[in-house]
Amino acid sequence: MSVGDGAYAGPFDSGEPDWLDEEAGPVVRPYTITGGRVDPAGFDLIAHVVATPGNPAAPPGDPARGQTPEERAILTVAANPCAVVEVAAIVDLPLGVVRVLLADLHEKDLIERYDPPAAPDGPNEQLLQAVIHGLRSI
Amino acid sequence: MAYGRSDRAVPQALKILIAGGFGVGKTTLVSSVSEISPLRTEEVLTSASAGTDDLGGVEAKTTTTVAMDFGRITIAPHLVLYLFGTPGQDRFMFLWDELASGSLGAVVMADTRRLADSFNVIDYFERRGTPFMIAVNCFDGVRSHTATQVRTALDLEQHVPVVLCDARERESVKEVLISLLEYILRGAAAAK
């Protein structure tokens, strides 16, 4: 996966086409993929998503499911539980774009969403102890 | 079995921020303890507000891409810690609100040659009430300053931990994270 080269080349970024360079700019403007919409659902960076059982990514070229290549890429990554920020990094799309697509997929019941628990009183001591203990033993 | 319960168990996720000036070693620190090579995610920023549904016609507005590096440590089968290297430049500090929200705390990395780079970051966490500590990255193992000198130079309160570390060394980074967590734990106990 190319990282940080600035040229946006889509979710299956397996190699740079030789006719495409930095000066060409993005092939598709990122928010074209979302139809111009921005972050409607506020997926937390470390919220986890997982594809709904029985709803794996449709095979490419299966128009019946109406999934875009980007949505298929996300569903493939989310076959097992995955943090939102990892999904974005793996499919190589901007975080905001991935959040919009996740909201779409969630609305269509294709993914389940697990938000990190809100802790209004701060983290509990038992949890902190568990993390410290875990860090010492890794 | 593709959809067995154990495969689909969703871990509890926690996050710690790794902050500091440009080139201070944030990504190095994350790499040293992360079980995955640090991943990078990007966010495209425009001057359009988040409440706007339609960005048509805003092509003339400035767009900026900001990158965040992050790593992951599986603490226990159902407990995962994410480390986020936060974009150092001041102009991206507004992004930190989201990063800081729900985080356990922050490690502010400092380079004694450029301590002033840490001021804004420290100020941010102090104002926000996010627990933080200072990790002085000793490049090349050179410990040219003591923790006390750094504490004085940064005008830190006595309770804020200051440790010297080598961001390239896994054990050293683990000690940094444990220091932060013990500090947060002391704070949680004191708040009772």
Using the CA coordinates, give the radius of gyration of chain A: 18 Å
Helical content of chain A stands at 25-40%
Kindly name the structural category of chain B: alpha/beta
Strands of chain A, count: 3
Q: Enumerate the strands of the largest sheet of chain A in spatial order, edge to edge or round the barrel.
A: 2-1-3
Low-confidence stretches of chain B: 1-6, 48-61
Helix-strand pattern of chain A: EHEHHEH
Q: Whole-number radius of gyration of chain B?
A: 18 Å
Mean pLDDT of chain A: 78
Beta fraction of chain B: 25-35%
Measured between the Cα atoms of the first and last residue of chain A, the distance is 28 Å
Approximately how much beta-strand content do the residues of chain A carry?
5-15%
- Return the structural class of chain A: mainly alpha
Strand order of the largest sheet of chain B: 2-3-4-1-5-6-7
Description:
- The complex is a heterodimer of chains A (138) and B (192).
- Chain A is mainly alpha-helical and 138 residues long.
- Helix content of chain A is 31%, strand content 7%.
- The longest helix of chain A is centred in the last third of the chain and has 13 residues.
- The N terminus of chain A is likely disordered.
- By secondary structure, chain B is α/β, with parallel strands linked by helices.
- Chain B is 29% helix and 28% strand.
- Chain B has a 7-stranded mixed β-sheet with strand order 2-3-4-1-5-6-7, sandwiched between helices.
- In chain B, strand 3 and strand 4 form a beta hairpin.
- Classes of the chains: A mainly alpha (138), B alpha/beta (192).
- The interface between A and B is large, with 48 and 52 residues.
